[in-house]
């Protein structure tokens, strides 16, 4: 009956996390409860984003005040960002395991009321890449989790921590299939939603990124503003001087989709700083750190142009940073180009 195991012995994300937790007897199960609420949030967002693609141009949306709102798809797209944020904030607060929430959608951090407070801080982008909804490109939720030091009188310092202090990080990609990718600090695992069960099933155990890749992913439209090392690296991808074949360019413009492809196929994803935006575009807490954590756990690297991305200490919750992440050997080449420039300065 071994052949039936995949049917009768399903490894769901819940079972997987409980197995992980059994390795840490001191834990009180709080993390498993927190994660189950994040997973619930993703399942709630998924139908909304897919609904949008199926519904006619106008949809009836019933909001908290139960009033009927008729929105054009364009407005709905903005609404979906806000809806997704509401879903996650409510799911995280109701878990009773969170203390501070930082969302891409909220200017200020949310301090959970004492009666519902727990030991974790969650930083998240509820619907990253949402400008791509109308054309059906994959989008996703990105999150990172810190443990608070003082949940009695929490301050922003609890979340202005380097990414290396994160306990866990992951993303949920809403695309042709719904894929949840997670690290809790001992490797990376991918789960695919089985709609008939409403469960995420382990489909990509122990993901390892290829040591070197054949793909580079960057918005070439910013090329005229790039600094020397970035320009040199991209030139090398297109016109290799060591007799190797040129790399392929794949750029979707939705971070979760570009990073997921990089994790599975190898290569590099770059959002460099440039003359116009020295800190680049992507946010440290809920884009750069979670994706960098996943990359390192999968055997890759993540670099800011100056340092290891996870060593960065953010000063503000919506701070940006340049990011170069992906296959170990490819990132080594980028680091060497930046080191050479620093030496010449
Ligand atoms: P650009 C989407 O808006 C996003 O925040 C990321 O998901 C994506 O990687 C990046 O911006 C794309 O930015 O400037 O290339 O359009």
UniProtKB/TrEMBL annotation:
UniProt entry tagged with the keyword Methyltransferase: no
A Pfam family this chain is assigned to: FBPase_C
Annotated SUPFAM superfamilies: Carbohydrate phosphatase
EC number(s) on file: 3.1.3.11
Domain spans labelled Fructose-1-6-bisphosphatase class I N-terminal: 11-205
KW Cytoplasm (keyword) present: yes
Location of this chain's protein in the cell: Cytoplasm
Cofactor needs: Mg(2+)
Alphabetized UniProt keyword annotations: Carbohydrate metabolism, Cytoplasm, Hydrolase, Magnesium, Metal-binding
Domain Fructose-1-6-bisphosphatase class 1 C-terminal per the UniProt entry, residue ranges: 209-338
Annotated catalysed reactions: beta-D-fructose 1,6-bisphosphate + H2O = beta-D-fructose 6-phosphate + phosphate
Major location (coarse): cytoplasm
Record NCBIfam families: PRK09293.1-1
PANTHER family assigned to the protein according to its UniProt record, in alphabetical order: FRUCTOSE-1,6-BISPHOSPHATASE, CYTOSOLIC, FRUCTOSE-1,6-BISPHOSPHATASE-RELATED
Family: Belongs to the FBPase class 1 family.
Listed name of the protein: Fructose-1,6-bisphosphatase, cytosolic
Origin organism lineage: Eukaryota, Viridiplantae, Streptophyta, Embryophyta, Tracheophyta
């Amino acid at each position: 009956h071994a052949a039936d195991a995949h049917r009768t012995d399903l490894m769901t994300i819940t079972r997987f996390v409980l197995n992980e937790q059994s390795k840490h007897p001191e834990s009180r199960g709080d993390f498993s409860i927190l994660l189950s609420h994040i997973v619930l949030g993703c399942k709630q967002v998924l139908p909304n984003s897919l609904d949008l693609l199926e519904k006619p141009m106008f949809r009836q949306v019933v909001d908290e005040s139960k009033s009927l709102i008729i929105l054009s798809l364009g407005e709905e797209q903005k609404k979906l960002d806000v809806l997704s944020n509401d879903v996650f904030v409510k799911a995280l607060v109701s878990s009773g395991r969170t203390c501070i929430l930082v969302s891409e959608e909220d200017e200020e951090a949310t301090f959970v009321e004492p009666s519902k407070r727990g030991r974790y801080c969650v930083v998240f982008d509820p619907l990253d890449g949402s400008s791509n909804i109308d054309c059906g490109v994959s989008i996703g939720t990105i999150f990172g989790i810190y443990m608070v030091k003082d949940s009695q009188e929490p301050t922003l310092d609890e979340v202005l921590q380097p990414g290396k202090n994160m306990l866990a990080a992951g993303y949920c990609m809403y695309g042709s299939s719904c894929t949840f990718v997670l690290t809790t600090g001992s490797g990376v695992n991918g789960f695919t939603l089985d709609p008939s069960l409403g469960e995420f099933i382990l489909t990509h155990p122990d993901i390892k990124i290829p040591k070197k890749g054949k793909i580079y992913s960057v918005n070439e439209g910013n090329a005229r503003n790039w600094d020397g090392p970035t320009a040199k690296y991209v030139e090398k991808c297109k016109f290799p001087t060591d007799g190797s074949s040129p790399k392929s360019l794949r750029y979707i413009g939705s971070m979760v989709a570009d990073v997921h492809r990089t994790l599975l196929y190898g290569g590099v994803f770059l959002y460099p700083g440039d003359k116009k935006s020295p800190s680049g575009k992507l946010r440290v807490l809920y884009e750069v750190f979670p994706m960098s954590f996943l990359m390192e756990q999968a055997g890759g690297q993540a670099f800011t142009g100056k340092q290891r991305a996870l060593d960065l200490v953010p000063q503000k919750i919506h701070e940006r940073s340049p990011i170069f992440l992906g296959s170990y050997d490819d990132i080594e080449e980028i680091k060497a180009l930046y080191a050479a420039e620093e030496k010449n300065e």
